[in-house]
Amino acid sequence: MSTLMWQWVLIIGSSLILFLLSPLAKSTDDFFKATHRNKAPNVFMLTGSLVISWIFAKSITNAANLGLEFGIVGGVAYAGYYLSFAVAGILIYFMRKKGGFTSLHQFLTTRFGKNAMRVFSILISIRLFNEVWSNTMVIGSYFGAVDTEAYYAAIIVFSLLTLAYSLKGGLSSSIFTDVIQMGLFTILLFVVLSNIYSVPGFTVSQTASSGIWSFETGLNLLFAALIQSFSYPFHDPVLTDRAFLSSPRVTLKSFLWASVLGGACIILFSIVGVYAQAMGMQGQAAVEVGKAFGTVILLIINFIMITSAASTLDSTFSSFSKLVAVDLNWGESITLGRIAMGVLVILGTIPIFLDAKILSATTISGTMVIGLTPVFLFWKLPAPKISFYLSVGCGLLFGFLLLFDLIPKNWILTQGNYADLLWVNIWGIASCLIVYLIPSWIKLW
């Protein structure tokens, strides 16, 4: 059987198994809050779900490519984004314990009004919309070149099969299958790394010493990731929805563990790229390493991509259904939740058939949401409604400056790749904090 046929077997077979194993949601709590037999997820389930839902196909592809480009420094830099779990976990813990809030939407409505909540909902909707095509495109690329029939067929089949088990159980299905997918990811990653380190001359010490710890070779990205971690998690409902499912204590433990384990997984997968660099490979690191080791390892790497993409996709469907039915209060019913999932699949797949430039133009980057930093960091500090709009608007402005390469060169104080990303975020965060606090200072005067 050819490699391509085995890939089809992996996609269809794994999806059917997950559909059969997924619990059927019998109540809105099952569908939107992931309860199972009236019990909330425990630390083990919640941690596994958090980690695998953020180790999506695009992220591990990026991790491998950064390992190829910068050595282990690239992997560590990308892992910096996983500070997001610790930041969100700690802040939301206190928002629940001290503030009594049951969702971010309730917090925003209470503090800044319904319109602020609607603006926030638009931002996270775009995030969810982008999650669909950005993950399915990675899967499609393993089946054929862009714009080929095999490429589009893989995307459509994969999306519909993932939708099927998501419709069955909602967030219950998502978290249940996440635990299975996390286990698979761990085993498969171990197999890949075992093969890499079986190659004579490639050692752990060589991996650890790969790359240079300078701004030009990865530190620009690392510091940008750490800065964005104070806003990035709050525009991703896949992450924040899970912060309100279990008790505050269980949730905090899970988020802190996820921060460590998620970052570790990214660093470990970046070793695929480090190996590619050591062997003088070029192109997509994960693909090239898979080809170098033969059909079995290539299929394992493909299966890692399928596993990670499916876990993110089903979480995206569940979060969008909750956003529509519960957070926006359009009607808390399982039927509406399932309809919302179907709509998202269609809307999230359409851009794949459009020009790539359109895709990049529609992406809401981490920079564009830096205005959320003071909104949640200073959640306990009384602030007028205008503070929310000034800060979020300021963040969007800096995001567009970066997107259209309009940053004055004298703002950028380091050299190398991602220098513009770092300094736009530094100046942007500082500006967002100032404009958020100014209305409060004026009131005090």
TrEMBL record:
Residues passing through the membrane, by range: 6-22, 43-64, 70-94, 150-167, 179-197, 217-234, 255-280, 292-313, 334-354, 360-379, 386-404, 424-442
Coiled-coil annotated residue ranges, if any: none
Catalytic activity: L-proline(in) + Na(+)(in) = L-proline(out) + Na(+)(out)
Compartment(s) where it occurs, according to its Swiss-Prot or TrEMBL record: Cell membrane
Protein topology in the membrane: Multi-pass membrane protein
Superkingdom of the organism of origin: Bacteria
Keyword field: Cell membrane, Ion transport, Membrane, Sodium, Sodium transport, Symport, Transmembrane, Transmembrane helix, Transport
Predominant subcellular localization, coarse grouping: membrane
InterPro entries: Na/Glc_symporter_sf (IPR038377), Na/solute_symporter (IPR001734), Sodium:Solute_Symporter (IPR050277)
Keyword Transport: yes
Family indicated by similarity: Belongs to the sodium:solute symporter (SSF) (TC 2.A.21) family.
Name of protein: Sodium:solute symporter
